[in-house]
Amino acid sequence: ADADWPENKKRHVFGPHEMFEMSLLPHMSFENVNTGTCSLIDLIGSDKCVLRAYKNACRTLVGFTINGAQLLLPIEVITPTNIVGVSAHVANRNELTVFAAQAQSGDGQNLEIYDEDAGVIMVSTIALEPMYVNFGNISVYEGVAMPTNRCGWFANLTLFPDSCWIHDESRGAVTNPSSANNVKMNGNIENTYDYAGYWFGCCSYFENGSIEWHIPNYWVTNSEKNLVSAGTRFCESVQCMSVNSNGTTTVSKYGFTVERQKGEEIWSD
After folding, report:
1. How many alpha carbons lie under 13 Å from residue 160 in its C-beta half-sphere?
2. What are the tens digits of pLDDT across the range 119-146?
3. In the chain, helix, strand, coil percent, each to 5?
4. Are 197 and 249 in contact (CB under 8 A)?
5. Facing residues of 72 across strands?
6. Strand ranges (DSSP E) for 78-193?
7. CA of 49: how far to CAs of 10, 46, 61, in Å?
8. Rg of the chain (C-alpha set)
9. pLDDT per residue as tens digits for the range 31-64
10. What residues form DSSP beta bridges with 34?
């Protein structure tokens, strides 16, 4: 089977709804196609066809009938199992502008970002596992998560009621799959970065404290994300954040940790 990624004409493993081409070598005519659980997209002449893989994980046999005999090819459809970090860095000024446009302060206005502020935002590039599978026909998104393990400063319910720390739509969660991010080739979510952290602004008082979230992740096929109410849950991402009495903030996610001191210069790019 010949598919678009990687360049391996003998690949038998495909992602959900991936299209692939089957042909006979040496070239000879076939009488019909046994698609298994795949769907037939197109017939190209008498010795070649284009198929689309099933959306769920499965194993099937696809083949041709030639002179009354079947030639069968086993294929496997694999769904994503995990999200892993590829790289991470402290957000620069341009990236913070993107973050600020998506977040809102308590009075409903866009957040203002200044060097003298406390807070840190980690920008991560992530990938879907297994990384040898093409997940270019699905979208992924984070769901709603409640805060857990609130310690020290973050456990002060007078300063921070429970509602203050919910990972909801204002903090990157998606409740409608139609808003999910398309996955690029081979699982890398390039140019669609994950933003993790918090911007405290000019708050002058801090104590040592930490907080974490266990965030569910979902996937959905691109052809169905406008049709379904929820995707398929496949893994959980743990996001941790801490602050000390000096206003130094740390955030960890996907195996990476970044830190920023209160008042540290925000780089332009």
Report:
1. 16
2. 899 999 888 888 888 888 898 899 999 9
3. 10, 45, 45
4. yes
5. 63
6. 82-90, 118-129, 138-142, 147-152, 181-182
7. 15, 8, 15
8. 24
9. 788 888 888 888 887 778 889 999 999 998 888 8
10. 63
